[in-house]
Amino acid sequence: MAITTPRPWLSSYAAGVPTDLPAETGSLADLIRTSVETYPDNVALEFFGRTTSYSELGEQIERAAEGLRLLGVQKGDPVALVLPNCPQHIVAFYAVLRLGAIVVEHNPLYTPRELRHQFEDHGARVVIAWNNVVETIQAFPPDVAVQTIISVDVTRAMPFTMRAMLRLPVAKARESRAALTTAVRGTTPWEKIVDAAPIDGHIIGPEVSDVAVIQYTSGTTGSPKGATLTHGNLGANAAQARAWVPEIERGTSVVYAVLPMFHAYGLTLCLTFAMSMGARLVLFPKFDPDLVLKVVKRHPPTFLPAVPPIYDRLTKAAVAEGVSLDGIRIAISGAMPLSAAVVEPWEAETGGYLVEGYGLSECSPVLMANPVAPNRKAGTVGLPLPSTEVRVVDPESPGTDVATGAEGELIVRGPQVFSGYWMKPEETEAVFVPATDGGADWYRTGDIVAIDDEGFVRIVDRIKELIITGGFNVAPSEVEEALRAHPDIEEAAVVGLPDEHSGEQVVAVVVLRDGATLDEAALRDFARDGLTPYKVPKRVVQADELPKSLIGKVLRREVRNGLLNG
């Protein structure tokens, strides 16, 4: 359907950026196949200096797909990935999709409780997991559906000399090896999967409308749920990203994967966008400025997606070590506000652009970005991407638009917007506003925004009470539940407070049981048993009572305001 809503932002697009894109007709399996056929000799992946060409990557994907098929993986089956950034992650991702099965991405640093909750929801029988988290999955209760664990030793993808050094009988080598891998039993080694013959080329792969990925998110209600993203959603978002940077020539770019690929942001800009560009994707298991700068000396990235703290630390480390960042042409920042204090030093060191964007897991995830041009606007998240429509509405009456320039809730639609949450029809219905023009329904972002007369969008506030720290979503209710499990805690309210380094800081306000005294360090240690480190409160504040509504609901907004003003 043709777009009929007003789009004032189109006049602010950078030169060469199209206003609309054709509908996606191919799957992500087609996307990677095209790059393999077009750039067979180009380097596709680099991991600690070891490289994999596109032709080698394509063969590994076809072999892994056959290995998974022999294990019984069929079209439509969810397959869980619990992996850091490594070559095996890319191969596993596309091998699952090649079968028409569904990738379910997981944070390998999650606690057993967090992982179990997600596995109980999606019901995957097969999981491809980093060695270091295998025991966690094996300890799941019998009612969790996992039948087969494929274990991945990430050191097997490293250069031979580096692997040999990790085996040296010295303390530092043992420590480094333990951080990367561990011995496991009762699993199918990844090497057995990729040793299969290539899959029969006549096996029918996925359709563009099939679900490709289940991406877990706290959504707009604070309860973690799986956003179902189709091949068309993710393919469209990769195409929109390509259209936004027309100056980057296919087959020549270098992209650094410093963002975790289990996160929606890293998934799209590294796993799909970079691969569709025929780019050299340099993989980092975690962000380490010194490690990144070593690679920068050899070949700086053309395109670097990241979050503000990464740009800040990388700039300071480069200056301190005398490493030039010149040549990093485009950097796209997301997940938290980008300040001039980060932008100005970065652009001075690189001679390129650092611009802010915006998205949500439910939108594959990128919805808008500042133009990579002199007219980008600091303090805004930029302009809607091609083929994306946005409206600003009354949050109490989401079918009613507010006046131009006024603040209201952002609702969106476009080819990258998901169709719903996994097995949760009621939650799905609650986040969509029915269309009245025959087009797709509008997704409610839960963000309060204002759009200026040039079409630039400024985030004002969030209706939803999610905390975004270091680019990751934290559901207050999940942290509160973990704190209330402590015998000394009667009630807890968790909010986010501004933090210049991480965007927001997780802060808990607690009411103690009679006779108890607050031991903040002990309470935070207790929380670590059930929460990933970034979810553990940085501060714990004691209160006699928590503000509540007439029906007894804790008013987190009042808690937050009290902390800010007190």
UniProtKB/TrEMBL annotation:
The keyword Ligase applies. CDD domains: FC-FACS_FadD_like (cd05936). Keywords: Ligase. Its EC number is 6.2.1.3. Coiled coil: none annotated. InterPro entries: AMP-bd_C, AMP-bd_C_sf, AMP-binding_CS, AMP-dep_synth/lig_dom, ANL_N_sf, ATP-dep_AMP-bd_enzyme. It is an enzyme of class 6 (ligase). NCBIfam families: PRK05605.1. Belongs to the ATP-dependent AMP-binding enzyme family. This is Long-chain acyl-CoA synthetase. It comes from Agromyces hippuratus.
